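quick q for whoever's on today - can somebody do inverse folding on this one?? i tried earlier but teh output was garbage lol. tokens:
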């Protein structure tokens, strides 16, 4: 009997290293796959890659909801740990009832906007709470199941439920406006509702106001340093401030700094939260742009579209029916992000608890070493009294993983050459093209931040240039004059938050963090989706 082997394709990274892709199926090799740099710019560790490849746990939430997974969740390609999601849309044969089932779920919940708060969010929260309560001996497969239950219910409440609304609305606007303008208009029509991200930002702003009002607290917070929290604990006058700070950590401490389990939570690094308070004290405004201004922009977008549809009552009515279903769009988008980061942080803590037990037994050196083991190596260690020594195996895998850090794989992979885009612009060019994220134009000095832990380096009025942002980064939007990200689109977190703060943003500006240096003077054109390097920093 002849064994069938999976097709293999070979690509080159930015550093020229060979990247071998062993396709899971021949059919998938003929589809286009996008590097998910938005959420996973670094390669996944072996354990997290295993969890991401757990199709049974990934598919279960969709089956429970009676819907079908969207294209990005029809499998994963994970060469060297880099996560690729499917770019090729579903065809009618693959998914004959995707839209029908999504609409049926919306009808059961009283409309597509209600799927989030009546169905998806309660299920995500229940899975997160269960994950936070697991014992160290809980099998990894059960942790994976809870992780996917929470994570994919956030997508059911957003991508699946709102897909039948966003798709037709996008089509309507693309028939009236240029594609990039239409994509931004869709998002602007959904602005104006409150969200979990806004509330967490207001909590930081309240802490900043408390600190400003007390000179002793303000001095400790402003001067910072590794001992700032300890100094505040010793400061009698800081009791109320620390009580409010502890409440913030209780509410948001399980939230990781990004979507990867290598990102620490605020429970582990409360100093990061204090850095945000320090930034908020120096911010040009302590909160999001006024609701009045955000609503004004939404109404202006509505008027632009309706002006184009004047004289066509049928199209006007269809448009208004679709736009009306975006009433809580921002709340859903940012609620999804909050619970995704909460489940990521909860999974991280659960795995670190397992890792700590193995460290105590001498099996590994530090709790984080568990990220470099696989379930078949971990679970038996909790089933038997004796535990072996896996430190050399961990060291070997950690070294291989670390060798890929900082490298950039191809943006798109496929065994079908026609699906791979042409070469990107050369690094020496002064103009960087991205996507419009938030309207406006500004020229200012750039601050390149590659790690959330460095957020206190951002100075008021600088342009924040980073790979991607997530909700914990949001208070920085009150400090920055504009946002530029390597990845993302008009519906991504940096674009949504920039619109809420009323500052320009260009997202999906590939190579921005590589081509822009801190201190460069740059112009950010959020309407055109273009960044221009005006003056290089003398040290560049």
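ok took a stab at it. sequence:
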């Amino acid at each position: 009997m002849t064994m069938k082997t999976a097709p293999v394709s070979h690509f080159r990274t930015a550093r020229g290293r060979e990247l071998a892709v062993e396709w899971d199926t021949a059919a998938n090799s003929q589809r286009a796959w996008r590097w998910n740099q938005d959420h996973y710019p670094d390669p996944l560790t072996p354990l997290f890659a295993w969890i991401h490849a757990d199709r049974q746990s990934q598919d279960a939430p969709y089956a429970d909801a009676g819907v079908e997974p969207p294209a990005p969740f029809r499998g994963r390609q994970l060469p060297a740990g880099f996560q690729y999601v499917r770019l090729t849309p579903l065809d009618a044969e693959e998914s004959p009832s995707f839209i029908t089932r999504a609409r049926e779920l919306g009808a059961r919940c009283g409309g597509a906007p209600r799927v989030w708060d009546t169905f998806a969010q309660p299920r995500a929260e229940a899975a997160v709470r269960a994950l936070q309560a697991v014992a160290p001996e809980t099998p990894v497969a059960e942790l994976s199941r809870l992780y996917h239950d929470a994570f994919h219910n956030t997508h059911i409440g957003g991508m699946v439920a709102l897909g039948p609304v966003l798709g037709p609305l996008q089509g309507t606007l693309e028939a009236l406006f240029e594609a990039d303008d239409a994509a931004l208009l869709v998002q602007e029509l959904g602005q104006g509702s409150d969200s979990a991200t806004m509330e967490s930002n207001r909590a930081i702003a309240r802490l900043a106001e408390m600190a400003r009002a007390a000179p002793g607290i303000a001095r400790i917070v402003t001067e910072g340093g590794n001992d700032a929290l300890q100094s505040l604990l010793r400061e009698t006058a800081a009791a109320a401030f620390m009580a409010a700070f502890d409440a913030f950590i209780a509410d948001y401490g399980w939230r990781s700094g990004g979507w990867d389990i290598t990102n620490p939570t605020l429970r582990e690094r409360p100093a990061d939260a204090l850095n945000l308070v320090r930034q908020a004290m120096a911010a040009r405004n302590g909160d999001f742009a006024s609701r009045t201004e955000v609503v004004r922009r939404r109404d202006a977008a509505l008027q632009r579209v309706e002006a184009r549809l004047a004289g066509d009552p049928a199209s006007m009515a269809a448009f208004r029916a679709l736009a009306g279903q975006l009433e809580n769009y921002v709340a859903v988008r940012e609620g999804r992000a909050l619970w995704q980061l909460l489940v990521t942080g909860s999974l991280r803590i659960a795995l670190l608890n397992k890792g700590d037990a193995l460290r105590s037994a001498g099996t590994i050196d530090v709790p984080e070493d568990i990220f470099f083991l696989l379930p078949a190596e971990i679970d038996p260690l909790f089933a038997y009294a004796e535990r072996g020594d896996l430190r050399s195996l961990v060291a070997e895998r950690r070294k291989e993983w670390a060798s890929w850090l900082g490298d950039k794989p191809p943006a798109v992979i496929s065994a079908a050459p026609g699906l791979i885009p042409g070469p990107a612009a050369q690094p020496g060019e002064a103009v960087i093209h991205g996507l419009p994220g938030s309207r406006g134009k500004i020229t200012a000095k750039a601050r390149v931040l590659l790690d959330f832990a460095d957020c206190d380096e951002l100075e008021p009025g600088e342009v924040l240039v980073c790979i991607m942002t997530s909700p914990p980064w949001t208070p920085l939007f009150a400090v920055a004059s504009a946002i530029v990200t390597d990845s993302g689109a008009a519906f991504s977190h940096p674009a949504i938050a920039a619109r809420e703060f009323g500052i320009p943003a260009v997202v999906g500006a590939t190579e921005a963090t590589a081509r822009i240096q801190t201190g460069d003077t740059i112009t950010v054109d959020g309407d055109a989706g273009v960044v221009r390097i005006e003056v290089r920093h003398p040290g560049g």
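fwiw The radius of gyration is 24 Å. also The CA atoms of residues 11 and 109 lie 45 Å apart. so keep that in mind when u check it
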